[in-house]
Amino acid sequence: MNETILYERTGHIGRLVLNNPSQHNALGQEQLAAIQSHLATVQSDDQVRVLIITGWGDKTFCAGASLQQLGSGNLSGDTFQETTDMVAHLAIPTICAINGNVYGGGVELALSCDFRIGIAGSKLRVPAAAIGLCYPISGINRFVERLGVSAAKRMLLAAEEMEAETLLELGFLDHLVQPAALDKAAETLALQISSLAPLAVRAMKQIIQQAASGDIERDQAQALSQLCLESADLQEGFAAKREKRVPRFQGK
Known about the structure:
Blueprint: E1 5-10, E2 13-18, H1 29-44, E3 50-55, E4 60-62, H2 67-72, H3 77-88, E5 94-97, E6 101-103, H4 105-111, E7 115-119, E8 123-125, H5 137-147, H6 149-156, E9 162-163, H7 164-170, E10 175-177, H8 182-194, H9 198-212, H10 218-229, H11 232-243
Parallel strand pairs: 2-3, 3-5, 4-6, 5-7, 6-8, 7-10
Antiparallel strand pairs: 1-2, 8-9
Helix pairs in contact: 1-3, 3-4, 5-6, 9-10
């Protein structure tokens, strides 16, 4: 396990792991390039129906962008934004299994996912204002879209450190579990999603994202809905209901 970013697929579930715990899974140029490469693989693999993103170790999920590389000019904030945008724009659902504390850009990486599962005892802080950094525009927009103005101000303007229970109340976390239960909780959710009709899931994710930004492209949304209505998966779903069995969706 020498690579700092790992990826594997088991069945319909992809799993991307930040594997640099000695550096609190901070992301430098090399790590971001590796993540982008793996995300491109996920996007082109029709067999992947859901992606889990997590970190290795029991202390930190992700400390965000490498401050050393940012300070030296060896890492551009644009590269980090490109990476989180790639996560957010994946056609399939994504689950962030937050295995420890999360800081800075690691918070945005988690926010780029569709679901977030955290562990009791973990903390969050975005220290941009504490070091004189204005968070990137697209990142600020993601905070506001996902969490609302009030929570975004607490995280970005006040650089408030937040406990896991507060994050659950704010809606940053969808689920809060004990550390030993994190992997199982993420896998259970991933299996649930992967058992559903892929075309319908992808279509609804795209429409939900458009609705969140306040700009639904109605013709496109209608075309996605029509594609599902005409799909073999819908007929399989009806048949499975009639025959009282588990549906076998093919994404067609």
